[in-house]
Design brief:
By secondary structure, the protein is an alpha/beta fold. Helix content is 40%, strand content 20%. The strands form 3 sheets. Strands 4-3-2-5-1-6-7-8 form an 8-stranded mixed beta sheet, with helices on both faces. It has a 6-stranded mixed beta sheet with strand order 12-13-17-14-15-16, with helices on both faces.
C-alpha cells in the first residue's frame, strides 16, 4: 500500500514503460472488478485533434454557472499532475491520489499476470477518475477528454449523454493513420448508438467519415458551419465576441475571455452541447448561464497572455492546425509588434511545416530542448530551419530566464510548441515575471 503521494505518483508514472496499448479489454476488466463506476456517471465525451481541452473548459464552466458539480478528466496537465482529475476546476488532493492508487494497484497487479497484460499509465489514471467521480467525490456531470484517437482510447467505455468531436487534424499519424479519413475514423469511434454528436471538423474528408459513422450508429449529427453557425465575430481586448445559431438555441453577442478565432468554434460546440442538455431537460439552465459560463472560462497555455509588459504569450500549438491558429492570431491581433518565437516540439510531429509557418511571422526564432522522451533537440529543430533569424538554445531554462528580462520595446515573446513543454515552461515564466 502506498503511504505517500510520491510513492503513488512514482507507481503511476512507472506504468509509462508499457507505452501506448490501444484496446478496451483491460479497462473493461478493471471496471467489472470495480462494479462499473463509469456506468454511474452522467458524462459528456469530447474527442478531436485540437480544441478538446478548451471545449471541456467551456462546457464545464457553463454547467458550473448553472449550479452543478462537474468533474473533468483532461490531459496533459499544465502545472500539477492532479489537475487531470478535477471537480469544478479544483484538482484531486494528494491524499485522494494515494487512496485512488491503492484502489487500482491490486487490479493492476492481477492484470500483469494475465494475457491482457498490465494497464498503461493512462488506463490507470482513467480508472482512477471513474472511481473518483462516481464514488469518492460524486459529481452531477463528468466531462471527459479523449486521450488519443477515440475508438480504442481508455475513456471510450463511457456511454455519454452527448459526444463532441472537435476539429480533426493530422496528428499522431504513426498510431492513428496518415490521412484525414483514417484519423477521423479513429476519432469517430466515440460515437455511440443513438447518442447525438456534434463536430467542429473543417476538413471535408474527415467530415465525410464522421457523417458516415454517425449514420451507422443512428446518431443525430450537428456540424459546425452547417447546423451550428457562427456569425458577427469580432475581437475584444482580451477575447472574442460572436453569435451562435444551432438546433438547440440561438445566442447573440456571446463573449469568451480566451483569445483566438478558433476559440469561437470550441465555445460554439460547448454552447450547443449545453443547449441540447437544456432542451432535453437533462439540466436546468438558460441563456444567462451559457453567457456567464463562456465569459468566465479559462484554460491555461492556450494563447494565454501571461505578461503584458513585456508582452509574453504561451500557446500549446503542438501540431499543424494549432500552429495555423496561432499564426493567424499573430497576423491579425499583434500587427504592431515584432515577434520572438520560442519553440519546442516532439519528434513525431510534422516539424517541417510547423517551423515554416512559424518562421513566416517570426522576427526572431529560438529553438529549445526540453526533457521528455520524444522531444526533439534544439539542434534537430534548428536543422529544419530555413531562416537566418533562427537560433538554437539547449538550456531552455537559462535562455528564458535571460530573454524574458530583456524583451526590447515594441517586441513580444511567444512561447509555443508541445503542451508538455508549455507545462514545464509556464511556472518558470510566471516566476520570472513576478520577480521583474
Amino acid at each position: 500500500m502506498f503511504q505517500t503521494y510520491e510513492e503513488a505518483l512514482n507507481w503511476i508514472h512507472g506504468r509509462l514503460r508499457l507505452g501506448i496499448k490501444p484496446g478496451l479489454k483491460r479497462m473493461e476488466w478493471m471496471m467489472g472488478r470495480l462494479g462499473h463506476p463509469e456506468k454511474k456517471l452522467h458524462a459528456v465525451h469530447i474527442g478531436g485533434t485540437n480544441g478538446k481541452g478548451s471545449t471541456v473548459t467551456f462546457l464545464r464552466s457553463i454547467l458550473e454557472a448553472a449550479g452543478y458539480s462537474v468533474g473533468t478528466f483532461t490531459s496533459p496537465y499544465i502545472e500539477h499532475f492532479n489537475e487531470r482529475i478535477s471537480v469544478n476546476g479544483q484538482p484531486v488532493s494528494d491524499r485522494e491520489i494515494i487512496e485512488l492508487a491503492n484502489k487500482i494497484k491490486p487490479l493492476s497487479d492481477e492484470l500483469d499476470q494475465t494475457e491482457l497484460g498490465g494497464p498503461t499509465e493512462f488506463e490507470v489514471i482513467t480508472a482512477m477518475s471513474f472511481v473518483y467521480f462516481a464514488e469518492i467525490h460524486p459529481v452531477d456531470f463528468a466531462v471527459y477528454e479523449v486521450g488519443l484517437g477515440g475508438r480504442f482510447d481508455s475513456t471510450n467505455i463511457l456511454n455519454p449523454l452527448i459526444s463532441i468531436i472537435t476539429n480533426v487534424g493530422l496528428d499522431h499519424i504513426s498510431i492513428l493513420g496518415d490521412t484525414y479519413a483514417e484519423i477521423a475514423f479513429e476519432k469517430a469511434g466515440i460515437i455511440k448508438e443513438g447518442i447525438p454528436v456534434l463536430t467542429g471538423t473543417q476538413n471535408r474528408e474527415a467530415h465525410t467519415v464522421i457523417e458516415e459513422q454517425a449514420a451507422v450508429k443512428n446518431s443525430p449529427l450537428s456540424t459546425l458551419g452547417s447546423e451550428i453557425r457562427i456569425s458577427s465575430h469580432s475581437k475584444t481586448a482580451k477575447g472574442e465576441k460572436f453569435t451562435v445559431a444551432s438546433p438547440f438555441g440561438e445566442w447573440a453577442g456571446l463573449e469568451v475571455s480566451m483569445i483566438g478565432g478558433h476559440q469561437t468554434m470550441n465555445a460554439a460546440l460547448a454552447a450547443s452541447a449545453a443547449g441540447y442538455l437544456i432542451k432535453t431537460g437533462i439540466i436546468k439552465a438558460g441563456e444567462e448561464e451559457i453567457r456567464k459560463g463562456l465569459k468566465d472560462a479559462f484554460w491555461p497555455g492556450r494563447l494565454e497572455i501571461v505578461s503584458e509588459n513585456p508582452l509574453v504569450i504561451l500557446d500549446g500549438a503542438h501540431n499543424t492546425e494549432g500552429v495555423a491558429s496561432l499564426v493567424q492570431e499573430l497576423q491579425t491581433r499583434f500587427t504592431d509588434k515584432n515577434i520572438h518565437i520560442v519553440f519546442a516540439a516532439l519528434k513525431d510531429k510534422p516539424l517541417d511545416s510547423m517551423i515554416s509557418s512559424l518562421e513566416a511571422v517570426a522576427d526572431r526564432m529560438t529553438f529549445v530542448s526540453f526533457d521528455f522522451p520524444r522531444a526533439a533537440t534544439a539542434g534537430e529543430l534548428a536543422a529544419l530551419s530555413k531562416s537566418d533569424k533562427s537560433e538554437a538554445a539547449d538550456d531552455w531554462i537559462q535562455f528564458l530566464d535571460e530573454a524574458i528580462k530583456s524583451v526590447p520595446p515594441g517586441w513580444m515573446m511567444v512561447i509555443t510548441g508541445s503542451l508538455y513543454f508549455i507545462s514545464e515552461a509556464r511556472s518558470r515564466v510566471l516566476e520570472n515575471i513576478s520577480e521583474n
